[in-house]
Amino acid sequence: MIRTVLGDIAPEELGVAFAHEHLLMTGGWPVMNEPDYRLDSVDKAVEELQPAQAAGLAAVVEMTPNGFGRSARGLQEISRRTGVHIVATTGLHKVGYYADNHWLHRYSAEQIAGMLVDEIELGMDEHNLEGPLVARTDARAGVVKVATSYHRPGRSVEKLVEAVGEAHGRTGVPVATHNDKGTFGHELLDLLVAAGVPESSVILGHIDHNPDPVVLGELAGRGAYLALDRPGRIKYAPDSDTVELLCALVELGHADRILLGSDLARRSYWRSLGGGPGLDYLLTTFAPRLAGGDLEPVLRQALTTNIARVLDFGKPTSS
Ligand SMILES: [Zn+2]
């Protein structure tokens, strides 16, 4: 089953899914310091999703973690209003985004694992584990996030990985990462494997920010999923980089490890807020350039069967 904020669904029900998006991000250090990160409107999220839905989008993995203004109830409302399946995340973002005395640095791996498991099995905290009170919702997390820093794990991240490994062992939940600028892929995979998470349960996020087909081929060869989440953000790289990367990965035999998303975590990226490229871009602009070519079925596979396979875990339970 795949765990969405409105309940568990069968993998066949997922449909076309983006592997890394943000729909609500209402607080936390980046939002306070950079107002462009503030995505705080359910109405605007619904509006932003509509053209993407019209182009075929049926599901998103919403990667806003604890302490970042995640809103479990808000995501439920967006899902109810649009019919888009939303897989939400527990876990944390990059350690540099949190206070020096954050519980990550004070709690044991065992304690943190317990908090993660509760968010996966019981429901996410509407207060984002910012404490001291927990407002448990009935929206359960379907992935757990772990984020590393540029070329290094960051303080207490090894402990977090240990906790994530424990949570995976107890639930089977897939792990979705933030690999800063595409770095630390092999190293993070090593840490996760040592913590008991098989490569085939790992989605490496932002890994295409280092669009090196050799490195990405090695990571896919180990069995990890590669979330290519940069198409449309031309300020970082042209879409032709993604096309070339797709060609190279297919040639290396890794079509079954590719996922796609657009990670539009800024107001200025949303068309509903007057920006661009917009959440529909991947389906309305990027996909058509592959139409009729060898990569068309690869894109389809990435957006459907691959993402459904990695999100599928455990046995469904009534929510
Ligand atoms: Zn993101």
What can you see in these coordinates?
With about 325 residues, the chain is an alpha/beta fold. It has a single domain, classed as Alpha-Beta Barrel (TIM Barrel). It has 11 helices and 10 strands. The chain has helices at about 30-35, 40-55, 70-80, 105, 110-120, 155-170, 185-195, 215-220, 240-250, 280-285, 295-310, and strands at about 1-5, 5-10, 15-20, 55-60, 85-90, 145-150, 175-180, 200-205, 225-230, 260. It has an 8-stranded parallel beta sheet. Strand 6 (about 145-150), helix 6 (about 155-170) and strand 7 form a beta-alpha-beta unit. The longest helix has 17 residues, at about 295-310. The protein is globular. The mean pLDDT is about 95. Bound molecules: zinc ion (ZN). Zinc ion binds near residues 22, 63 and 263.
Gist of the model:
This protein has 319 residues and is of the alpha/beta class. Helices cover 36% and strands 15% of the residues. The strands form two sheets. Strands 3-4-5-6-7-8-9-10 form an eight-stranded parallel beta sheet. A two-stranded antiparallel sheet has the order 1-2.
Topology summary:
Elements: E1 2-4, E2 7-9, E3 16-21, H1 29-33, H2 42-54, E4 57-62, H3 72-82, E5 85-91, H4 103-106, H5 109-121, E6 143-148, H6 157-171, E7 175-179, H7 185-194, E8 202-205, H8 213-221, E9 225-228, H9 239-251, E10 258-260, H10 281-286, H11 295-311
Parallel strand pairs: 3-4, 4-5, 5-6, 6-7, 7-8, 8-9, 9-10
Antiparallel strand pairs: 1-2
Zinc ion (ZN) binds next to loops.
